Amino acid sequence: MQNEELVKVAIAALEDMKATDITTIDVRGKTSVTDFMVIASGTSSRHVKSIANEVLDKTKEQGVRPIGSEGLDGGEWALLDLGDVVVHVFQVATRQFYDLERLWQGAEQSRAQHQDLPE
Predict the structure, then answer these.
(1) What pLDDT was estimated at residue 28?
(2) pTM of the model
(3) Lowest CB count within 10 Å: 40, 69, 88, 113, which one?
(4) Is residue 55 domain-resident?
(5) Structural domain that includes position 32
(6) How many domains are contained in the chain?
(7) CATH code for the domain in which residue 64 is found
(8) Is 47 a member of any domain?
(9) Any long-range contacts for 24-30 (C-beta under 8 Å, 24+ apart)?
């Protein structure tokens, strides 16, 4: 399955479970860890867990086995490592605290500044 198709499967699962504020960040060329990050919010710990489990179920149906997952027990946040796609599901306050969208924008700017420094 192509990365873009996997992103679409993940987003469809997120939408089916009524996740909010779904954002996709293309990090190709910015990190070797993954190509895409999909970030979404849930309304409660139960909702976050349900959303994450639905994404896992839908991607497994497509033959994609997750490399790993974190945070499913607590429900404040969940990380699903699908290889070239990483899905983050947060409760709203936790998402605001970590602010991954800003972090990745800043990382890109920081990397450009460091490349211009003399050796």
Answers:
(1) 86
(2) 0.85
(3) 113
(4) yes
(5) 3-106
(6) 1
(7) 3.30.460.10
(8) yes
(9) 25/100, 25/101, 25/104, 27/104, 30/104, 30/107, 30/108, 30/111
